Amino acid sequence: MSVSIANPGHGVGGGHDDAHDEVIYHETRDMRLLGFVLFLCSDVILFSSFIFAYIYLRTTVAPTWPPLVGGHQLPRLDTAFATVNSVVLFGSGVTMHYALENFKHANLRRFNWFMGFTVVLGTMFLCGQGYEYAHAQIGGWSGNIFGASFFTLTGMHGFHVFCGVIFLLILWWQTTRGVYDQQHYFGLTAGTLYWHFVDVIWVALFFLFYLW
Amino acid sequence: MATLAPGVKTGPYHAVLDHIHPEPTGFIRKYIFSIDAKVIGIQYMITGGLFFLIAGLLAEIIRAQLLTPNGAVVTAATYNSIYSMHGSAMVWMVVIPLVTGGFGNFVMPLQIGARDVAFPWLNLAAFWMFPVAGVILFSSFLFGAPDAGWTEYPPVSLQGPPGTSMWCVAIFLIGISSTLTGINFMVTIFKMRAPGMTLTRMPLFVWGQFATAALMFIATTALAGALLALFLERTFGVPFYDPKHGGSPLLWQHMFWFYSHPAVYIMILPVFGIISEVLPTFSRKPIFGYKMIAFSTVAIALLGFSVWAHHMFTSGMVPWLQLPFMIITMVIAIPTGVKIFSWMATLWGGSIHWTTPMLFATGFLITFTCGGLTGFFLAAVPLDYHEHGTYFVVAHLHYVLYGGSMMGLFAGLYYWWPKMTGRMYNEVLGYWHFWLSFVAFNGTFMPMHWLGLMGMPRRVATYDPQFQFWNVFASISAFVLAASMLICIYNLGMSLRRGKLAGPNPWGARTLEWMISSPPPYYNYKRIPAVLAAPYDFGNPLPYIGLDAAPGAEEAAAISESHPVPTY
Fold first, then answer.
1. Is A39's pLDDT higher than 60?
2. What pLDDT sits at residue B18?
3. Which residues of A touch B568 (CB under 8 A)?
4. Which of A70, A148, B41, B113 has the largest CB neighbor count within 10 A?
5. What chain B residue is nearest to A148 in terms of C-alpha separation?
6. What's the pLDDT tens digit per position in B365-375?
7. Are residues B444 and B519 in the same domain?
8. Tens digit of pLDDT for each residue in B85-131?
9. b vs e for B193-222, b when ≥16 Cβ sit within 10 Å of the residue's Cβ?
10. Mean of pLDDT values over B50-58
11. Cβ B118–A35 below 8 Å, yes or no?
12. What is the predicted pLDDT for the residue at B14?
């Protein structure tokens, strides 16, 4: 913690007490954790508003689903491919979990492997999304309400995954620089939380677009 | 860690409460990019005050146009832009930032005995989005300002001028600012209260900020979604709202009101808090029904999420949904009534001091109750069919937003002015401001009830000559209302130059912020005090220990042996 603490009660003359710094660290960590969880909550609402839009359009406005465009019904999305891609993303959630656990137990070699897996799987998911975008026969982003909901929601999710990959790379780089140790790893906790959040959103999207 | 007096429950944190950022020295770091919540609060007030003047001028143009039935002050198209911008600016650039960012930042950390908010840098970032958003919003006049009302219903907003997209960006930006402030305040109130300040010992203003913070970080991103979709549809033709491409204009109304109904509580709950501070202080009596006021605040916030469709009774929504929305809307009158009656009981038998903040607070009680009652009328579906889209709605919303939020804001401004500046204002000019604005406000908006009942539609640049008398009456009153603001500006300006020094506690109030010098020092409290009780027990000793100024300082000395106490 690079904070300046005016704490003469514990060390008159600007001296810093390690035990006191430790208390400060844990207290501010709890605050940042709460703040981060609240941020994720408001992000959930952002997705929810688009999910609401999708459900609303699909159930109250569209006479058939997938909608008719020019007299032809659009095809459904490719569920098989998306299932494989989803497994890739969920797998990265598992590897992220093990990365954090191994960091906590100071197994740095395994931590590096699992971080590597997570980043690669996350990137693979993004590539899979790109492939799916190129092959989805639903009339493009601005063609109809199916395309609008699908590309906007999965695009927003993909943007979150992309940010997550960058986030994890920064955390990984920080770890090699010794920013975190076995008692102080708030950044990794936040990164793991964020990555699981991205997974959970995908569960909802997978159900709504491929299984429903 | 700290050994407190018997019976003192400690708050969750000690060490972090004593954490102090080094005080900045340069002008820029001290006043422009400050991370001090007090400075940021005042920055919000100055910026919001400027936007209030601009949006108020727009209102005066509206009233000038309506002096004659075929008013020719502006063209009909410009008129559409002017009332749209007036509404948008007043809601998002004035009232919401002032009640949360402004008073929340200045007062809330002081009242919970904290040195700052939980995330000072986030606070700085959230503030600077506000003027940027305001400049984007107002500069849309250069490119064709939005003209579909502050609600920007599609498909009209889809066909609107380019400024409508700037409107989306500006509101999106202020929405992010509001979300970040909500998160910040939530963590601050949860984690940074002084030792002994349990939830039911918090001042009621803090309860108001607490419920509002929850609304802000939950509801605002829903609006962000709606705005993003509108922006995408306008810019890239992505169909969400346009029925021509299979979208639904009703979808916007659902998404918009899911935020914007909670937003009216964002605009009023902190003001309820201000009123709950001012009334007991100037009645010299404990607040009546502390817990009921606190819990009704939370009840209003929760109920506020389930009433949005009462704005849409005439929009062609499913008929069977109208009844539940009507009933839940009416149920909100119960917690609101609990507050109104608790405040009246607080006044009952009190030794009332008619200072300017007290005048504004009692004025609030009257006008807000009128606005609440017309809200109850509008909640009734059959009546709403008749009144929707008429001046009755304009009257209602101004009674709750001006008669409620702005009156409460003026009460708060005069109440905390000595704390912010260290100087008193002139009470006589304060009386003039109150009485002129109170009479002129009612003169402006009371006739609108009648105009609405007679059937005058809102958002029109010209009207039937039969409505002219009350329109002229309203317009002249509106000009007087504007003049009363000049008195306020003059009064506060003179106070800054040569106002009498206020001292720490000119009102004899009992919340924590009055226990320290005015204006408060950078670090707020030399010692983080311990809190023994809720602050409103007039007649009892102050419930704080560990403060220099508070009784029981000797007692505090014993505590400071074990409690980390900064010395400077």
1. yes
2. 63
3. 6
4. A148
5. B238
6. 999 999 999 99
7. no
8. 999 999 999 999 999 999 999 999 999 999 899 999 999 999 999 99
9. bbbbbeeebbbbbbbbbbbbbbbbbbbbbb
10. 97
11. yes
12. 53
Q: Does A139 touch chain B (CB under 8 A)?
A: no
Question: Could you give the CA distance from residue B409 to residue B44 in angstroms, rounded to a whole number?
Answer: 13
Residue of A nearest to B16 (CA): A24
Q: What rounded mean pLDDT belongs to chain B? A: 90
Q: Is residue B331 part of a domain?
A: no
Q: Is the pLDDT of residue A17 over 90?
A: no
Report how many domains make up chain A: 1
Is A148 in CB contact (< 8 Å) with chain B?
Answer: yes
Nearest to B492 by CA among B424, B401, B404, B553: B424
Residue A11: is its pLDDT beyond 70? no
Q: Looking at residue A178, which CATH number applies to its domain?
A: 1.20.120.80
Calculate the alpha carbon distances from B32 to B23, B127, B182 in Å.
14, 11, 22
For B561, the closest chain A residue by CA position comes to A9
Claim to verify: residue B431 and residue B532 sit in the same structural domain? no
Sign of the Cα torsion B335, B337, B340, B345 reads negative
Task: Provide the residue range defining the domain that includes B212.
Answer: 26-302
| Domain match, B47 and B123 both | yes
Within-domain flag for A36 = no
Q: Could you tell me if B233 and B281 lie in one domain?
A: yes
B179 shares a domain with B135: yes
Residue type, B214: A
Q: By CA distance, what is B184's nearest residue in A? A: A35
Interface probe for A, chosen from B3, B17, B19 (most Cβ of A below 10 Å), is: B19
Confidence (pLDDT) at B479:
97
Determine the pLDDT at residue A20.
Answer: 73
Cα dihedral B507→B509→B515→B519 (10° resolution): -40
Q: Which domain holds residue A116?
A: 75-211
Q: Which chain B residues touch A33 with a CB distance below 8 Å?
A: none
Asked if residue B309 is part of any domain, the answer here is no
Residue B528: the pLDDT is: 83
Measured CA to CA in angstroms, residue B144 lies from B85, B139, B154, B404 at distances of 11, 9, 17, 32
Please list every residue in chain A whose beta carbon sits closer than 8 Å to the beta carbon of residue B18: 5-7, 9
More confidently predicted of A164 and A73: A164
Among A23, A38, A61, select the one facing B186 at the smallest CB separation. A38
A10 at the B interface (CB within 8 A)?
yes
The answer to whether residue B462 sits within a structural domain is: yes
Per-residue confidence at B71, pLDDT binned at 50, 70, 90? Answer: confident
Please enumerate, as own/partner, the contacts of A102-110 that have beta carbons within 8 Å and a separation of 24 or more: A103/A175, A103/A180, A103/A182, A103/A185, A103/A188, A104/A182, A104/A185, A105/A182, A106/A182
Are residues B538 and B437 part of one domain? no
Domain boundary at B446, B466, B501, which? B501
What distance in Å separates residue B568's CA from the closest CA in chain A? 8
CB-nearest to B15 from A24, A67, A148 is: A24
CB proximity A3 to B under 8 Å: yes
Number of domains observed in the structure of chain B: 3
Given an 8 Å threshold on Cβ–Cβ distance, is B226 in contact with A49?
yes
